[in-house]
Amino acid sequence: MDAARLAATSPxxxxxxxxxxxxxxxxxxxxxxxxxxxxxxxGTELAIVGDVSPxxxxxxxxxxxxxxxxxxxxxxxxxxxxxxxxxxxxxxxxLSVLAGGPRRPFVPHTPExxxxxxxxxxxxxxxxxxxxxxxxxxxxWLESGRGNARTGAYVLTSxxxxxxxTLGLDLDQARAxxxxxAYACLDWSERRPHLGGALGAAFLALALxxxxxxxxxxxxxxxxxxxxxxxxxxxxxxxx
Amino acid sequence: MDAARLAATSPxxxxxxxxxxxxxxxxxxxxxxxxxxxxxxxGTELAIVGDVSPxxxxxxxxxxxxxxxxxxxxxxxxxxxxxxxxxxxxxxxxLSVLAGGPRRPFVPHTPExxxxxxxxxxxxxxxxxxxxxxxxxxxxWLESGRGNARTGAYVLTSxxxxxxxTLGLDLDQARAxxxxxAYACLDWSERRPHLGGALGAAFLALALxxxxxxxxxxxxxxxxxxxxxxxxxxxxxxxx
DNA sequence: CCCATACTTCGTTTACGGTCAAAGCATGGA
DNA sequence: TCCATGCTTTGACCGTAAACGAAGTATGGG
Lengths: 240, 240
Known about the structure:
The structure is a homodimer.
Chain A: H1 3-7, H2 11-24, H3 26-34, E1 41-42, H4 43-50, H5 54-66, E2 70-75, E3 78-83, H6 86-98, H7 112-116, E4 118-120, E5 123-125, H8 127-138, E6 142-144, H9 148-151, E7 154-156, H10 158-167, H11 171-176, E8 183-187, E9 192-196, H12 198-209, E10 213-215, E11 222-224, H13 226-236
The first copy, chain A, binds a DNA duplex through residues 25, 27, 42-44, 52-62, 76-79, 121, 177-180.
């Protein structure tokens, strides 16, 4: 076989090299595989995953992004990173096979309590929050506002105003805050929206004061109380 | 999500890191992808492929071997490297998808003339050589000798002795050479054995002198002449 | 307007590993 | 026994990039 032919280099080769190099460092490997569960994570979380400082993590994530291994979703001050697509997951899967870990659990492994209910800043998140959000929309308490596609903004309908007032929410106080009133906040364990903004915060505050939910000692997890079970079922049709 | 859980590192992660690192350098990437066609290549050939010196290639190949990405088959002074298994090919395939080369031709791309017939040191190789080998064995001209499993040694049967003598081969001269008389030499484009050793060399010399085959100007490729077509078909039942 | 949080950029240090030539084996063939 | 070939080992050199803290930027919320 002639040398010229053997030495011919495809541009794909160099691309593969740099992609493999992007995967190759332990910190980045850990970050990528932690994202295999389908959850998005913030830069700070991934710094912990990678066991490096936030600044180092930032560099790593920039690299992963430039190689199109992850995509980023900016929400407020947070940057949520997730795998760029199924093809990335498949490639990582194949590599893990070579690594002799034939079966690693690529299933979501968010702790159950956190998946069910947790706080997201000052509002409610998790499976329950997503169900509630769906109920609010289905009941026409909330409707898409201007620029909903971009900002996720919701407006409260008259039915919604009555309903939340009946619950005991102080809507005037919520509106007085200089912050977004209601918007669709992507829930990153459920991958569907839940209710954020002043209204979401007010609802969480109400649920806590009514003892529908209780805060866990040192995490963002929330527990649904016996009362909460009953109220969520009767008032909002939630099934547990 | 608590930090301890996020920071938990699986041993698979570090294995993936080092495997990815092994793939990551351009020289090694080129070597690996050149092996995707299923052909084994010698260290020297892979040095050319990787565009590095033989000594550097040796280091690279040692690394690929230690990561179980390639396996090596020693034949004489040559070390034939090939992908360690289908799982390696699959992983490389996935990576090339990420690299944006969705479809690269992972089919054998040995130049056709070389696939058909070429010299292997001093004997005949390629598709024709494999067919001939099969004919010799099927016709009971050759039978497995002592240690065939290890050395691939063949012994000539009395039928074989008569047949080759009839062809005009000087078997005594071939036997007089201080080299292996006949053995199964792995054909790396066909991945099946062809006839090597003194007998194989004598056969090639005969075929050339009878004008069944003609050498190409500057490669190992051999051309089957019109006469060769007829003779190979009538004498050995080869189909073209 | 100001603070707090999340993340990025910068500058420096450090270390890993890729590279080659030269010398050292090992094998095959004369 | 000797040489030629194929491959590996060694040793010196150099370049890339990973790491951190500190300083800078951006966003949200009071």
